[in-house]
Amino acid sequence: METCEEVVDFGESGPVRCSRCKGYINPFMKFIDQERKFICNLCGDREDLVDSRAVGVDGGMKSGGEDS
């Protein structure tokens, strides 16, 4: 029996990464400021999420900083 794994296409920019340590976004990063920023769990740097890449806690996409 084959299982189908979902693949996420992040486009040309690739997955979200910390600009300081280059760590990939992961479940251990803390999201702050209404999920518009995150604190890297590897180096502690605070990063802004680009609006088009922000994802709500429930998995719903956001655009322009507002819930869709």
Percent helix range? under 10%
Number of domains: 1
The share of residues in extended strands comes to 15-25%
CATH superfamily: Zn-finger domain of Sec23/24
Terminal Cα span: 37 Å
Main sheet strand line-up? 1-2-3
Describe the sheet with the most strands.
Answer: 3 strands, antiparallel
Q: How many individual helices?
A: 0
Task: Give the overall average pLDDT.
Answer: 79
Please give the CATH architecture.
Roll
Structural class: mainly beta
Task: Give the number of DSSP strands.
Answer: 5
Pfam families: zf-Sec23_Sec24 (PF04810)
Protein name: Zinc finger Sec23/Sec24-type domain-containing protein
Describe, in plain words, how this protein is organized in 3D.
- The protein is mostly beta strands and 68 residues long.
- It has a single domain (14-68), classed as SH3 type barrels (Roll).
- It has strands spanning 30-32, 37-39, 46-48, 62-63, 66-67.
- Strands 1-2-3 form a three-stranded antiparallel beta sheet, with no helix packed on it.
- It comes from Gossypium arboreum (Tree cotton).
- Residues 15-49 form the Zinc finger Sec23/Sec24-type domain.
- This is Zinc finger Sec23/Sec24-type domain-containing protein.
- Pfam families: zf-Sec23_Sec24.
Short description:
This protein has strands spanning 30-32, 37-39, 46-48, 62-63, 66-67. The chain has 68 residues and is mainly beta.
Would you spell out the secondary-structure blueprint of this structure?
Blueprint lengths: L29 E3 L4 E3 L6 E3 L13 E2 L2 E2 L1
Antiparallel strand pairs: 1-2, 2-3, 4-5
